[in-house]
């Protein structure tokens, strides 16, 4: 159908092509019935990680200030004298089931394209004056920016700009408390910048390392729900998998319960060829390398080990609202709480919730 064609187009042209796009009408119910009022958001801002970013009245590029924590709301509401503030609140989905459901709706659109993404968190920014913005920046992960309230004008680069990545200090305004890209760095990058107005219910997809910044078009309340997709660094993946694997049965000698060891002498002897038997003492031979690769490959090739690590690692960011290894009986149903991260492994009839594995009975599965 038409939906499948759109999903395929998104996957091929934008997701795999790493290009931004506007998903018109991605969540139409949000435009008609926003899940949060301004008072509810500001109340949550007092207990969740939050900050107010204020642009000063001067033309200086570093004329910004940041107020974090419980005083962020006061700083946001007290912006005057030419100042323009925006309130940013993180982890909203962990306290509000409606926001969590919206994030699921956005990601389900992506799931239909054949991609599978795991939610990191939902950040909400609120602006109430024309021009309110967090400033030009890039992110190291994919993000879906869902518009709520009034429209918002966005500027986004047509693709990734590696020279403006978050870790490149020279690309950002010096002596500035807010991590914003400098005009000169953007100009020197020769990035092609596109401009669009996003309406309530629309979502803007921004791939990693794309320059983007939005600004309120008027003085009415303007909300952007930033649905961040989990994208751990390669280092985090390797460290996490190594730590997980080391705790599993794969590292236990079942005969006596002792810790399994990598007997490189035996492994090399089994692999070594006649031409290497005379290798000089104290040197690394091809057989040493092959034996080590085989040992590491045996872990990566262990499908059960990798499946279990995926389930636990990619859901451990969730809030721990369910006891670990709590059994589900045939007549019971699990109810998802706000902030939960859940993955289901149909092949193993396992449910992973907030870093914990729950094996389901046939009836539950």
What does this structure look like?
The chain is of the alpha+beta class and 365 residues long. Helix content is 28%, strand content 21%. It has an eight-stranded antiparallel β-sheet with strand order 1-9-6-11-5-4-2-3. Strands 8-7-10 form a three-stranded antiparallel β-sheet, with no helix packed on it. β12 and β13 form a beta hairpin. α7 crosses α10 and α8 packs across α9.
The poorly predicted ranges are 320-325
Strand content: 15-25%
Span of the ends, CA to CA: 29 Å
The biggest beta sheet reads: 8 strands, antiparallel
- Sum up the overall morphology in one term: globular
Helical residue percent band: 25-40%
Q: Please compute the radius of gyration using only Cα atoms.
A: 25 Å
**Major sheet: order of its strands?**
1-9-6-11-5-4-2-3
**Estimated structural class:** alpha+beta
Q: What sequence of helices (H) and strands (E) makes up the elements?
A: HEHHEEHEHEEEHEEEEHHHHEEE
The average pLDDT score comes to: 83
Tally of separate helices: 10
State the total count of DSSP E strands.
14
Write the layout of secondary structure elements.
Layout: H1 2-15, E1 21-23, H2 28-32, H3 38-45, E2 50-55, E3 64-68, H4 72-77, E4 84-89, H5 97-111, E5 119-127, E6 143-149, E7 152-157, H6 183-189, E8 193-198, E9 203-206, E10 212-216, E11 222-229, H7 234-246, H8 264-271, H9 286-300, H10 303-313, E12 342-345, E13 350-353, E14 356-359
Antiparallel strand pairs: 1-9, 2-3, 2-4, 4-5, 5-11, 6-9, 6-11, 7-8, 7-10, 12-13, 13-14
Helix pairs in contact: 7-10, 8-9
